[in-house]
Specification:
Largest sheet: 3 strands, antiparallel
Oligomer: single chain
Protein name: PX domain-containing protein
GO molecular function: phosphatidylinositol binding
Number of domains: 2
Strand content: 5-15%
Pfam family, one: PX
Domain PX: 61-171
Subcellular location: Cytoplasm; Endomembrane system
Shape: elongated
Strand order of the largest sheet: 1-2-3
Structural class: mainly alpha
Helix content: over 70%
């Protein structure tokens, strides 16, 4: 009986060992499959990197335009808006239709790929925009793609130039989200090439202070820009009312007066001024003045609104930079777990290893090496992003803000001059026409 029990115990131990070996074999197979998948993803990502770096060195000018918002029906008969995006770049011509949600998904993806860096902002999400809202969105989407074209490493990314601008698949959002995630080490190499970096040091007190000051500057500027935008909007509304009153007076009031009061007093219509059939140039100038005033008001509002969103986008870059530290912290926790796991394996059975335990030890040690490399990579990547921010991006952003302000003031002055010139032309034509129709005594 005792022999039978001993045999049962031995059999049970053998079965347990077999099950353990089968389980470890399955785990090893899964690990191998995962390594193959990761290797394939890495190769695809490296290939896209090579395309990006090649196109970045190309001086081919980029032309891109967002236009023609149109309502279409999906297969489920739901209605949604699409925008035509067309143009030409180093890869050739393109023309696609994109939903606003696809613009949004694109930008979210770029934020993850380029933590810490400025990604051009998009207009706010709106439910069924119509009229002026839709026109404003088209204008702001054009500013977005224009800014993308100015930052070549964003424009020639796989997400933008190959998928967003050229994909014919039905679900572009899903296609962007399914692209291989960037490998940290290949991303570091790409970062080095784009920003011409060799070695960077750990951020010092001056660098940290510069970033903190920039964050405060952006937050303060945001508040001022919100106030400025409200003032511009109020000015726009006042000028729009004044413009409508002016055109109501000249376009309807005086014309009605000429037809109903003056016309019966005159021999023919050619003695009138505003409704004179020979005064087509005057009518065209009045119509142009109406449209030009609207363009002036819209452009100023768009520029201020874009400045406000730019500040928010730059702050968003700072926040995504901090995500690198969070990821590094997670990898460090993973590393500690692996080290604890290795310690348990080492002390099992007094350190006497079987074949299975030895394989497990080797496997964990390899995982520890990989995790330590990831920790070092995320630390170095964080240092690189901080270095680019403090030596390039912040200074460029401030310079761009000065240039934007100069452009806003210049454009405002130019648009007002053009508007006044057209107004002067209107009055000159009226004077000339009135003089030519002077009643002879």
């Amino acid at each position: 009986m005792q022999i039978d029990e001993t045999n049962d115990t031995v059999t049970q131990m053998i079965d347990n060992d077999v099950q353990q070996q089968q389980k470890e074999a399955e785990n090893n197979q899964q690990d191998n499959q995962q390594e193959v998948i990761e290797q394939q993803s890495l190769e695809q990502y490296q290939e896209s990197n090579e395309i990006l770096l090649k196109q970045m060195d190309d001086d081919e000018p980029i032309f891109i335009l967002v236009s023609n918002p149109s309502e279409v029906k999906s297969s489920s008969m739901n209605k949604f808006l699409v925008y035509t995006v067309k143009g030409k770049d180093a890869l050739g011509n393109f023309e696609v239709q994109r939903r606003f949600n696809e613009f949004y998904t694109l930008r979210e993806s770029l934020l993850q790929i380029w933590p810490g860096l400025y990604i051009p902002p998009l207009p706010d999400k709106l439910v069924n925009p119509t009229g002026d809202q839709l026109l404003e969105r088209v204008r702001l989407l054009n500013i977005f793609v224009m800014k993308m074209a100015q930052i070549k490493y964003l424009y020639y990314s796989e997400e933008f130039v190959q998928v967003f601008l050229r994909s014919s698949q039905a679900d572009v959002c899903k296609q962007i989200q399914s692209l291989p995630k960037p490998n940290i080490r290949s991303q570091i190499e790409k970062f080095k090439h784009i920003f011409e970096l060799d070695q960077v040091q750990e951020p010092d007190a001056n660098s940290i202070n510069k970033i903190n000051q920039m964050q405060r500057f952006c937050k303060q500027s945001q508040q001022l820009l919100i106030k400025l935008f409200d003032q511009a909007k109020g000015l726009s509304g006042s000028k729009r009312c004044l413009k409508e009153l002016f055109h109501s007076f000249f376009g309807y009031g005086l014309q009605e007066f000429e037809q109903q009061v003056l016309r019966p007093c005159l021999e023919n219509e050619k003695q009138l001024i505003l409704t004179n059939p020979d005064a087509q140039e005057l009518k065209s100038t009045l119509d142009y003045l109406k449209d030009q005033n609207q363009i002036s008001l819209d452009k100023i509002q768009d520029l201020i609104s874009t400045e406000q969103r730019d500040m928010e986008a730059f702050l968003q870059g700072f926040q995504s930079r901090e995500s690198l530290l969070l990821t590094k912290s997670k990898v460090e926790n993973k590393l500690r777990d692996q080290q604890e796991q290795l310690t348990k394996v080492m002390i099992a059975k007094g350190g006497s290893f079987g074949k299975t335990q030895e394989e497990q030890r080797q496997k964990i040690e390899l995982q520890i090496i990989e995790s330590q490399n990831d920790v070092d990579s995320y630390k170095y990547y964080y240092q690189m992003v901080t270095h680019v921010l403090t030596t390039k991006a912040i200074d460029k952003f401030k310079k761009d803000k000065h240039e934007s302000y100069r452009r806003i003031v210049r454009d405002l002055a130019q648009l007002e001059i053009e508007s006044n010139q057209v107004m002067q032309e209107v009055w000159t034509r009226i004077i000339s026409l009135a003089e030519s129709l002077r009643v002879k005594e």
